[in-house]
Amino acid sequence: xxxxxxxxxxxxxxxxxxxxxxxxxxxxxxxxxxxxxxxxxxxxxxxxxxxxxxxxxxxxxxxxxxxxxxxxxxxxxxxxxxxxxxxxxxxxxxxxxxxxxxxxxxxxxxxxxxxxxxxxxxxxxx
Length: 126
What we know:
Blueprint: H1 5-8, E1 13-14, E2 36-46, E3 52-60, E4 64-69, E5 78-83, E6 86-99, E7 102-115, E8 121-123
Antiparallel strand pairs: 1-7, 2-3, 2-5, 3-4, 4-7, 5-6, 6-7, 7-8
């Protein structure tokens, strides 16, 4: 499930990888853009096609997203992600176990293309 040039349309936005950290409880949010709750499914594949899963999306922003996974993913892992409204390449920034065989994975987009579910191109940036 590689991202092919015909899937990307106009040149995708290249976003520099910056370290992200979740703020401590009560601390000021440090993300450059807020994530909005979003209930949908995304399909992700590790670079090189080593592992592929469909997972529940938790939240989404112009710069990244988070989803639940039944396996742990290491920070630094490169993923290809497809969803109803996006095609992206993203880097795992954090992952934490929230229960038996349930992990929350946060990723930052490296390249992303947002589109309308009807097929219309919407934006390279949200």
